[in-house]
Amino acid sequence: ILPLATLVGIAVLVSACVGPDSVAASEGVAVDRVESEQATFRVVQVASGLERPWGMAFLPDGRLLVTERVGGLLIVEGDGTTREVSGLPRIAVAGQGGLLDVILDPEYETSRFIYLSYVYRDDGSMGTVVARATLSGTRLANVETIFEMTPGGSTTRHFGSRFAFLPDGTLLFTIGDRGERARAQDLDDHAGKTLRINTDGSVPSDNPFVDDPDAADARAEVYTYGNRNAQGMTVHPQTGTVWQHEHGPRGGDEINIVEAGANYGWPLVSYGDEYSGGSIGGTTREGVEDPLIHWTPSIAPSGMDFYEGSSFPEWQGDLFVGALAGTHLRRVEVSGERVVGQERLLDGVLGRIRDVETGPDGFLYLITDANNGGLFRLEPVE
Which of 157, 63, 45, 149 lies closest to 102, judged by CA? Predict the structure, then answer.
């Protein structure tokens, strides 16, 4: 791991440096100057008062959709103010569950569809739902469930729930093992998997276990398995490969490249230990994909994005990962399908970073997981 970035100063000035597609800064500069290994930047607070924000997606006009785990969907306007979206389905909020990720349809400007993942409750059983809806002003319309996990469960943890669209227009999303680890290896169970569906909820005919005589009991939506709790997923902008990270137990957080039909090992192998001590079945096994990198102690990764903006040319192609337990932003330098360097940014400065996105203005946006969470933007400093 490379050296920490140096915090040079903290200020409470008002930022006037915003591009035409920016969400403006209503709160001001949170950190005046950070000198990292490859770029110098400041941190501008765009909005505050977000209640446990979880996911975000930019609208074509530069405004931002932000989900709150407690069940709210917000639009962050151009001046940094927030407006609540109505018309959401009933959402079960418990433990790590609630309203989770949001993503826009690749053809949003014509379809107007957005996709939400959230937790439902039915007679004590909780599970993950994917819904599709259209956004009309500040109201959701035409809300329809296009996926519901089977079976549910009674636990309130490890819901996973990150979205990514493949280049072919199909939708990937993750569901954690729900804290019941054996479920991740059971192909007749949606838990502990990466799943793939069409945008109407139907199953792509080329999913890896469709019509597989050796996996006759497999759920047709299953794309990968052996995933403990993946809360970050993004598509490489040049190669189209899908990169995913997931939480380990006591250590052993991983980054993997997602391949159809692959087994990522949980709970057969792990670089982490049992919470009570002791190893979990070793670190490698035939038929199981090894991670590109792993982190021990855990940083509790959440959200990630390849930077592809113009504001930080030094960061082009770098992978940025939010850290919850590690309370920092992790810059991961990649070459092809190899990790060649890492850097900790904003260590302990903003708190638990839940999601990371490149904005249409070329700046890097972060949300923090707190009862009074914030939306922040990284801007270059000459």
Answer: 63
Q: Is residue 158 annotated as part of the catalytic site, yes or no?
A: yes
**DSSP assigned state of 184:** G
- Do 196 and 202 meet the contact criterion of CB atoms below 8 Å apart? no
DSSP state of 109: H
| Amino acid, single-letter form, for residue 266 | W
Contact 112, 164 (CB under 8 A): no
Residue 5 pLDDT greater than 80, yes or no: no
Q: Which pTM does this prediction carry? A: 0.94
Q: What is the pLDDT of residues 291-339, one digit of tens each?
A: 999 999 999 999 999 999 999 999 999 999 999 999 999 999 999 999 9
Q: What's the number of CA atoms in the CB half-sphere (13 Å) around residue 106?
A: 13
Please, what's the b/e burial string for 123-158 (b: 16 or more CB within 10 A of its CB; e: otherwise)? eeebbbbbbbbbbeeeebeeeeebbebeebbebbeb
Catalytic residue among 158, 190, 247, 328: 158
Q: Which helix (H) or strand (E) holds 108?
A: helix 108-111
Rounded-to-integer distance, Cα 81 and Cα 66, Å: 12
Q: How far is CA 56 from the centre of its chain?
A: 9
Whole-number CA gyration radius for the chain: 20
Residue 108 has φ and ψ, to the nearest 5°, of -55, -40
Biggest CA-to-CA distance, the chain: 64
Q: 382 falls in which pLDDT band (50, 70, 90)?
A: confident
Beta strand residue intervals within 316-372, DSSP E: 319-323, 328-335, 338-345, 353-358, 364-368
**Under DSSP, is residue 215 helix (H, G, I), strand (E, B) or coil?**
helix
